[in-house]
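Hallway conversation turned thread

IA: we were arguing at lunch whether anyone had actually written out Phosphodiester glycosidase domain-containing protein end to end. Turns out nobody had. So, for the record, here is the sequence (355 residues) and right after it the structure tokens. Reply here if something looks off.
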Amino acid sequence: MMTETKQINRFFLLACGPLLGLLIALLISGTLIEWESQSSTITTDSDILTTTGNIAEGLSQAENMAKTTISSIKTTAELYHKTTSTMSSIVKMAQKAAVSPENIYDDRISSKLGTPFQTIQSDKIKIQLYKMNPGTYKGYAMKIKLKSTDAMKMTLGNDKLGGSETTLHAVNRYGAVAGINAGGFADSSGKRYPLSTTIMNGKYLTGFEPTFKDLFFVGLNSSGKLIGGKFQRKENLDKLNPLFGASFVPVLLKDGKKTTIPTKWQTSPLRAPRTVIGNYKDDQLLIIVVDGYNESGSSGATLEELQGRLMKLAVKDAYNLDGGGSSSLVVNGRVINNPSDGSLRPVPTHFLFFK
């Protein structure tokens, strides 16, 4: 508001300049209007005519200069408005050019997925849902742009260690717009515990456990970026400022390249329902949930098939989350995938997304 006031003041100073000049010119010119005192007396008609003529001539000059001043003000105003309009156009063009590379990249990766059958958008998040059917399996892809660091969270089953709940229950309980199952788990004494290193709200749930065998950690950092990999030392993971995350096996892509899938996971099971999370180079997320009618290895997708699909979709890093009967995709309170158990399996960790 202060800037607009200064601009208006400058404009009217410029506009009134010619008028002030007119008054000064009249004062110093040869045409002067003299007012006689009450005691002075005009004695002849000639004097009256001369004085009247001088006044008329002065008024005529004043009128001409006023017209010139008005014209100058009008010209200045038009120039001001044209300049303002031009600057506004330049600003808009610059803003459009600034986001153009981002839009071009998004269009390119989106075109590889096809046409979304559902889009959810708010000032915190943008979600686009796609169907996947490359021929050997069927599933769904969910591309997510996190616009806020609180648009994604990880939750514990019923908010307690050892607890478990379905993704649908977690989504409804937290008022989330979407959710998937997260890390692996181990059962003990009728309770279901998260597997290996698990972080909630920036704190280690059961302490740090060095990565062993094929395990990895995946989650989000305090800047809302996907982080993951194998960590032998706690300080190496701490450097990434993890906000939350869980563990499972194996890593599928790292820096846009395929990783070696352990022999065990190539065949046990061969095919299965899958849940995968990855990120693009612009930090958008891609989640793939593959359907399968059981966990026997005869339905769903192989990890090698998913690696190839992720590469074609230009994903940078990708991690295989818990699958089989645990695979869950819930959007707007509705189960999107077809759980292999016939219904959703209660699990201890979930990744939830919020509008």
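OS: looked through it. Residues 1-9, 11-16, 22-42 have pLDDT under 50 and may be disordered.
IA: good, adding that to the notes. The radius of gyration is 37 Å.
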